[in-house]
Amino acid sequence: MADTQRSPGGARAQLVPVDFVQEMTGRAAQAPDSRTPGVDGDTWLARLPGAVDDALARWDLRVDEAGGTGPLVRHGVNALVVPVRRRDGSPAALKLTWPHPEARHEHLALRAWGGRGAVGLLAAYPSEGALLLERLDPAADLTGPPVDEACATIGALLRRLDRPALPQLDRLSEWTRRFLADPGHPRVPRRFVDQARALARGLLRDDPGLDARLVHADLHYENVLARPGVTGPDRWVAIDPKPLAAEPAYAVWPALHNRWAEATDGDLAWEIRCRLGWLCDAAGIDEDRARAWAIIRTVEDALDTARSADRPDPRPDSAPDFAPDSATDVASGAESGAAPDAEQDADLAATVQARILLLKALQPDA
């Protein structure tokens, strides 16, 4: 998450960073589910200062101007995180999330994990996208440690987070059937699409337990933070889950394609093979299944990114994982007068090409 210059306006509006406003402005609504209408980015931003006030009053909080171990306010692509103090003076973090499908079950997953391997949930108001969380150290994530240590930590977290799936969650089997119905895209080589489809059919056919476990589907290096002052196995915890009823092997992919610059600084196939081994060894996951899901997820993401690049005004739901600092670069370009749409188009095209490189590296004989 980033911390940046705050926007002008009233007391609560000043909590909202300028670059977060830029990120959300013009974003189309996404219905979280079939019963709940979506909210576009501009409308949500207009409501955000009031939502902060409501949460502060509801849970008897005050904004922590000292900011604890990190900057005052931080944000990601979809959420604002404000450091707060509870009535007893203990630190916490108030998270307010723009409504979208991947966020609607976050509170359920965090409650199920109960602070074991994931950030602790102190309170939730799901209809407003408001969560009160334990305060972590935002400056301590897994982008700093050596990649082998980071992969081992993520693998250990996958093992700790493994538990029976919740009935409310989206199911991996349904996701897989939607993937099989995807017609493809000319920018993604047909041989990889065909390979991914064959793997998906086999996994769907052969495993009746595909939806059996609660899985954090976006467990990458920046989605693991440290508990301040804690050592040992409880130090590192997962944040920002995209919970899914799935199998743990599905969750290995994010750690393969993040820290991409390091992966490409040398023999990419060897680096990906090593990461896959470190992750699966620590998690107790079958490496062949993890590789199969990684190929499927890489193809699916490449297809989605290629279609985003075809749109007149592409605005992906998340920053491209294969283009480190791309969100920062786009913001800097906008400030200097560069055309942000052209830069975003270039980022998306580069992301598709990086996905293809990863697919080549994931081949068993690479």
Briefly summarize what is shown.
With 366 residues, the protein is an alpha+beta fold. The protein has helices at 18-24, 41-58, 106-113, 147-161, 172-180, 190-206, 253-257, 260-263, 268-283, 287-310, 326-336, 340-362, and strands spanning 62-63, 74-75, 79-85, 91-97, 121-125, 130-134, 137-141, 213-216, 224-226, 236-238, 243-246. The strands form three sheets. Strands 1, 2, 3, 4, 5 and 6 form a six-stranded antiparallel sheet that branches. Strands 7-9-10 form a three-stranded antiparallel sheet, with helices on one face.
Describe this structure in words.
The chain has 366 residues and is of the alpha+beta class. The protein is built from 12 helices and 11 strands. It is 43% helix and 13% strand. The strands form 3 sheets. Strands 1, 2, 3, 4, 5 and 6 form a 6-stranded antiparallel beta sheet that branches. The chain has a 3-stranded antiparallel beta sheet with strand order 7-9-10, covered by helices on one side. The longest helix has 24 residues. The radius of gyration is 20 Å and the shape is globular. About 10% of the residues have low confidence.
